[in-house]
């Protein structure tokens, strides 16, 4: 029985169910029963073949796409790298002071074609960004920043350190750490093993098709992936990109894939019905609910005993009726020790 409900609620997620645009029909059945290197190889079959929305970069085309993939409800640009507000022009094109930026930069694989062009035009890897921020972060890898020289409240840029090697990097805010990690995971699955890496990318990538990430990078990205679970914004963007170029980011659809490829479940066979998907067992968090559902504050990613809250109000107990939240999107948060996270759910 649900008990101890305070105002709203808070919540995290173990793995989100696949949205109707994708699902098991999109992914090859050969994913089931695989893990580690074999799972990565099978996953690449699903995501590698896709169609570019343009034969070469075209600002008008890309901003027309952004108007669907990265548009907030109020008509402003959803910029994951800056707090500045910009609106989409009525006549199309880029808003003043905005440009496109990548998470994985094409120059990290040099001039090797066609992969550099594929990656440059891949909508899963390109996002709108304030021009001055795009210039400051150009070529930098995402990492934990120890000595900040720039901080706009959304990303921090400055000195980072890996085993005594000091370099410049940018660190996304907690709200977007998981978003960035899942883009990198997608690129690893889609393009890993096809190129030699250059520049700062050596701080993230290894040669070969598996595991693609070095040990320190895999640990960092998994921690970001788990502490900032998939949001409704990512799901909706994934759906639009799928309609545009014909492939999906599987780590948005099935977040537990990351654990089966790089994490603790690396030797555990993947299944659509465990750790995520429409067949996920009752009593665990998911991304969407109807008013008659119960929202259970449980996740494979979150240790028992976590403290939950929503909009600053604590939740006593381990569940809450979705009807208490009401129709709409709700941001849920949790903390236990030094571990913190949040996710957005939707009640329909």
Q: Any chance you could write out the topology, listing elements then pairs?
A:
Blueprint: H1 36-48, H2 59-69, E1 98-102, H3 115-121, E2 126-130, H4 131-137, E3 141-142, E4 147-151, E5 155-162, E6 165-172, H5 174-191, H6 215-227, H7 232-245, H8 250-253, H9 257-262, E7 288-289, E8 294-296, E9 307-310, E10 313-315, E11 319-321, H10 322-325, E12 328-336, E13 339-347
Parallel strand pairs: 3-6, 7-13
Antiparallel strand pairs: 1-2, 4-5, 5-6, 8-11, 9-10, 9-12, 12-13
Helix pairs in contact: 1-5, 5-6
Given the C-alpha coordinates, what overall shape results?
A: globular
The count of β-strands is 13
Instruction: Report the average pLDDT across residues.
Output: 83
Radius of gyration, in Å, reads 20 Å
> Structural class given helices, strands, pairing?
alpha+beta
Give the strand line-up of the largest sheet.
7-13-12-9-10
**Main beta sheet:** 5 strands, mixed
Uncertain spans: 1-21, 275-282
Distance between the termini: 22 Å
Order of helices and strands: HHEHEHEEEEHHHHHEEEEEHEE
Percent range of helical residues: 25-40%
Please, how many helices?
10
Percent of sequence in beta strands: 15-25%
Task: Explain what the structure shows.
There is one protein chain. The chain is an alpha+beta fold. Helix content is 28%, strand content 19%. The chain has ten helices and 13 strands. The protein has helices spanning 36-48, 59-69, 115-121, 131-137, 174-191, 215-227, 232-245, 250-253, 257-262, 322-325, and strands at residues 98-102, 126-130, 141-142, 147-151, 155-162, 165-172, 288-289, 294-296, 307-310, 313-315, 319-321, 328-336, 339-347. The strands form four sheets. Strands 7-13-12-9-10 form a five-stranded mixed β-sheet. The protein has a four-stranded mixed β-sheet with strand order 3-6-5-4. A two-stranded antiparallel ribbon has the order 1-2. The two termini are 22 Å apart.
């Amino acid at each position: 029985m649900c008990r101890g409900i305070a105002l709203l609620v808070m919540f995290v997620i173990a793995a989100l169910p696949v949205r109707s645009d994708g699902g098991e029909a999109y992914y090859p059945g050969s994913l089931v029963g695989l893990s580690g290197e074999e799972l990565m190889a099978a996953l690449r079959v699903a995501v590698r073949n896709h169609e570019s929305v343009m034969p070469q970069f075209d600002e008008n085309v890309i901003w027309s796409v952004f108007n669907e993939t990265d548009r907030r409800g109020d008509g402003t640009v959803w910029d994951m790298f800056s707090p500045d507000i910009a609106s989409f022009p009525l006549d199309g094109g880029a808003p003043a002071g905005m440009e496109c930026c990548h998470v994985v930069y094409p120059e990290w694989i040099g001039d090797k074609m066609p992969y550099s062009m594929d990656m440059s035009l891949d909508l899963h890897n390109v996002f709108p960004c304030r021009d001055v921020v795009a210039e400051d972060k150009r070529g930098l890898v995402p990492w934990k920043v120890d000595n900040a020289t720039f901080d706009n409240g959304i990303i921090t840029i400055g000195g980072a350190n890996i085993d005594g090697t000091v370099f410049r990097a940018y660190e996304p805010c907690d709200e977007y750490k998981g978003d960035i990690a899942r883009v990198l995971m997608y690129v690893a699955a889609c393009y890993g093993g096809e190129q030699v890496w250059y520049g700062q990318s050596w701080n993230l990538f290894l040669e070969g098709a598996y595991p693609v990430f070095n040990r320190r990078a895999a640990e960092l990205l998994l921690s970001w992936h788990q502490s900032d679970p998939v949001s409704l914004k990512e799901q909706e963007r994934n759906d639009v990109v799928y309609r545009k170029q014909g492939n999906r980011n599987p780590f948005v659809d099935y977040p537990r894939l990351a654990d089966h490829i790089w994490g603790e479940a690396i030797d555990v066979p993947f299944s659509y019905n465990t750790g995520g998907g429409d067949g996920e067992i009752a009593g665990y968090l998911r991304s969407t609910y109807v008013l008659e559902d119960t929202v259970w504050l449980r996740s494979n990613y979150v240790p028992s005993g976590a403290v939950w809250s929503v909009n600053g109000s604590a939740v006593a107990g381990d569940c809450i009726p979705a009807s208490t939240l009401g129709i709409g999107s709700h941001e849920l948060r949790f903390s236990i020790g030094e571990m913190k996270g949040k996710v957005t759910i939707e009640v329909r």
